[in-house]
TrEMBL record:
UniProt xrefs under NCBIfam families: PRK07471.1
Gene Ontology molecular-function annotations: DNA-directed DNA polymerase activity
Enzyme class: transferase
E.C. designation(s): 2.7.7.7
SUPFAM superfamilies xrefs: P-loop containing nucleoside triphosphate hydrolases
InterPro entries to which the protein is assigned, alphabetical: DNA_Rep/Repair_Clamp_Loader (IPR050238), P-loop_NTPase (IPR027417)
One Pfam family of this chain: DNA_pol3_delta2
Organism: Neokomagataea tanensis
Keyword entries, A-Z: Nucleotidyltransferase, Transferase
GO biological process, one term: DNA-templated DNA replication
Protein name: DNA polymerase III subunit delta
């Protein structure tokens, strides 16, 4: 999971699946002395953007051998020339904060004002750049406008359209695509073929979906999507499902997936009214999730309202 430490953290990995062409574009620019100062790795959530970003950082810092001293320092997060900016963890709520703040970005200025600790390049990795709030985005923009020499910034984003146009314009874009089936099997050999298929080429999404080990959240989402009116049994299921942040996020994700699929299906059949209705519900579901997580609203009440809206439509 992005943002969590441990053997599955992108920091600990070196092998990248499915993004060889993007890596080649970067390494060719580096070896030919034409490395752009900022790169934006963008694509759907869960396809390995952070893993590739850490791999590129290893290439720049000459730490691709995980067993080497440099490689070990990168894995441990102690390399003096690598600074990672990401959403901090909210210890009270036990989940990642909703935003990357100006305070999170402020260490970059101090980092870049010092000579490279190991005499080479310095790398700033911003994981989840779409979470930069307005103040953090403006602080990063100033750095992108006047980057020091021998410095490269690696930004990842699942929603590049949410970034300031001036940030995007100062980055070289690396578009990443969902993984092919063979790469998905290589990354997650223990995950069932059905789960891999549902993940649509995103290993992170496969692991996310696998949290619903007994299928209860999937069944609940299907009831809500079918327009089933709330009853005591469903209310109890909702309370169990959203007891923690991951359950709420997964239920919202499944609802969004179902509504998006319905919108596409109705559009293909020429049912414009039904397609527009499903698309509207999808937008409402996404907005509900963002607002609930950002403002720490009552998750049970949010899902109840979404279920009522679908039942009444």
């Amino acid at each position: 999971m992005i943002g969590s430490e441990g053997p599955d953290h992108p920091r600990q990995k070196n092998k990248v699946y499915g993004h060889g062409q993007a890596e080649q574009s970067f390494t060719s620019a580096l070896h030919n002395g034409r490395l752009h100062h900022a790169w934006l790795l963008h694509g759907p959530a869960g396809i390995g953007k952070a893993t590739l970003a850490f791999r590129l950082a290893r290439v720049v810092l000459k730490g691709t051998d995980l067993a080497s001293p440099v490689g070990r320092r990168i894995s441990a997060g102690t390399h003096g020339d690598l600074l990672v900016i990401e959403r901090a963890k909210d210890e009270k709520r036990g989940r990642l904060r909703a935003e990357i703040t100006a305070a999170d970005v402020r260490p970059v200025q101090d980092f870049l004002h010092h000579t490279a600790a190991e005499g080479g390049w310095r790398v700033v990795l911003v994981d989840g750049a779409e979470f930069l709030n307005r103040f953090a985005a403006n602080a990063l923009l100033k750095i992108l406008e006047e980057p020091p020499p021998n410095t490269v910034l690696l930004l990842t984003s699942a929603s590049p359209g949410a970034l300031l146009p001036t940030i995007r314009s100062r980055c070289r874009m690396l578009a990443l695509s969902p993984l092919h089936e063979r790469d998905m099997r290589a990354v997650l050999p223990e995950v069932s073929p059905d789960m891999l298929s549902r993940a649509q080429g995103a290993p992170g999404r496969a692991l996310f979906l696998a949290m619903d080990s007994d299928g209860s959240i999937t069944q609940l989402s299907q009831k809500i999507l079918s327009g089933t009116r709330l009853n005591s049994d469903m209310l109890a299921q909702i309370e169990r499902a959203v007891r923690d942040a991951d359950g709420f996020a997964l239920l919202c994700d499944l609802l969004g997936e179902g509504l998006a699929s319905k919108a596409r299906q109705e559009a293909r059949l020429g049912n414009v009214v039904q397609a527009e209705r499903a698309a509207r519900h999808f937008a409402e579901c996404e907005a509900m999730r963002r607002q609930t997580e950002h403002m720490n609203l009552d998750k049970v009440q949010a899902i109840r309202q979404a279920a009522r809206s679908l039942a009444e439509s």
